[in-house]
Amino acid sequence: MEITRIRAGDLADPEVDELLTEIVEFDRAINRALGFGSDFDPLPGSVRGKLVRSDAFTSHEIWLGRIEGRLVAKSGAYLSLSDNTDVADVYTGVLPEARRHGLGTQLLTVMETQLREDGRTRMNAWCEMPALDFSADPRRPRIAAAAGTGSLPADHGEVAFALHSGYRLQQIERCSAARIQGAAIEGEAGVPVPEMSSATGDETTSEAPDDTAAGDDYTIRTWAGPTPVEHVEAIALLRQKMSTDVPGAAELYDESKWDGDRVRALEADREFAGGRTQTALALLDGEGVGFTEVVSYAGRPNVAYQGATLVRSEHRGHGLGARLKIANHAALRRDSPIERVYTWNAAENSWMLAINDRAGFAAVGWVGLWKKILD
Ligand SMILES: CC(C)(COP(=O)(O)OP(=O)(O)OC[C@H]1O[C@@H](n2cnc3c(N)ncnc32)[C@H](O)[C@@H]1OP(=O)(O)O)[C@@H](O)C(=O)NCCC(=O)NCCS
Fold this sequence. Notes:
The chain is of the alpha+beta class. About 30% of the residues lie in helices and about 30% in strands.
């Protein structure tokens, strides 16, 4: 197998155009083989962004494996440049018809070796499986996550590959979906996407630029698109807290550093990929104390993906997590064609899962987060 390494920004535009279709088709084949449907297919704008965009804060690299010119294997690494500079978030895929010939191992080994030469010694990887696959046959042997909650079937191909490659299962995340408007649909992997319950579904109790309905002094402000200038510092601070305050984060990353420039850089990345971010921010006396965001893409206008959600620890216990989501979903129903939202939560994040269960989310898949320290 011939292996080529490409760093974001390495290629000229015509080369990017040529590669884009090939990579999108490859990523789509990997997604469909896992058992996920079109909501998780690659978005060309995001793929292009990973090939061309690098800034002071983040970059991407890919390794392409070809046999007789055909792309059969691909690895990718997401790299933080301003903190966590010894970490790489890595993923390897091999076309279904080329598996079990050692290609995944070969490509992963080359990527790990080259990342280690660049000083990256902490690898974080992930694998995904549809909910039906995850719970099929309760008698299967399972691997427990080090975080203490949840396990994955040990004989699942991707789980076996991660174990074989020296990765340790750190944490499990649940991926769930809820329908916020529109006709009933069949969701990912045959799981029906439930309608969001009235706990979050009733606009008369939801959108709240000045939401004091709960009888306290918190207010919720929502917006779509770039963060209003007066809230950029608050969002930067909340994102920084997010990097340490969510369950299990410390096992995978050091605190990430955020400022206004980094907030704007993330917004520019999303905009490049055709992304639209809908945000809700909780304020107390003008200070940002919690936020939630969902991102949708021009190429798939009916679907949104949950980004970060955080309520600062000293403001928990006021129902702010649910109120933020209610306000954000109400804004989506009012101002966007979004019909369904996907969200990811750590299996041990029981309070967040409870908020989502109340809101009518149902599991569509599970994600294993793996780590490996290179010698
Ligand atoms: C995971 C993946 C990359 C493996 O690629 P591959 O080229 O088949 O992997 P290899 O041939 O190098 O396998 C190495 C070892 O992993 C284990 N393994 C890999 N696939 C397996 C499977 N389906 N069942 C059981 N064990 C498996 C075996 O121990 C194998 O060694 P062996 O073939 O000598 O028994 C491929 O299945 C894939 O693309 N999956 C979807 C993408 C994905 O989820 N990636 C993240 C993985 S953490």
